[in-house]
Amino acid sequence: MRWAFATVLMLTVASGVHGEELQVPYGGSTQQMDGNGGMTWTCEPQSASGSISCSFVQVSVRKPDIPDREAEASKLLASFSRDECAQLDDALAQAVAKAREVGAEDWIRKNAERTVSVYRRLCSAFDLNAALGVVDFQQDLDRKTCNISTWPFSLTFNRSEAGDKWEAIDGPRGSCGVVKFVSLVPDYPVGSTLPLWSFRQRSVVTNPEATGIDGRSCSEWSEERIEFVWKKQVIRPMCEFVRHGAF
Question: Are strands 145-159 and 51-62 parallel, antiparallel or unpaired?
């Protein structure tokens, strides 16, 4: 993951010096300004149109949402049956034995043993307190875990009217009609004629009367701005564990 957060020199076309002509960002690696994500990209000029075609890979590092513990415990009790206990106990016991057999790291073995303990208590008592024990164990692990996801996408950019950046418009997409206004903006470090690049995106909802895929009204979504910059930033670790998953 080092590449996602390092400050990397942007490769550009030296077709002019600072102030003469907007250069082409052949590639870049940036870090999210207000977050822990990263983004890399490559671009190719389209000679016929004067535009550039860019392929991006965005990396997201997020903490999972933690739902209400009592609501989760109630759902667990409603969906779990005593008939599952024997089969579950055997499976968990085998997992613990396997962890010990292969010499798994201490935290893996302890988590396996703790999982067996909380589920055995649930199967024995089968009440809300026992279900809360299972939920608390799972949520404690979630609080120490980061979800890391990648999202590839492509955009075609054109020079802005002012000629000072590359611009693209994506959308509208989805029931909310989300439109994204994206720009690649050059920044010239002191003494350099070659720019480093930042990625800026503004998302707006064009169909606020509709309902989104999560069931909420599209009018609840406010304008969103996100920026990925080339400048080096120090990231404070916020996870003990990492879970890879869909974006």
Answer: antiparallel
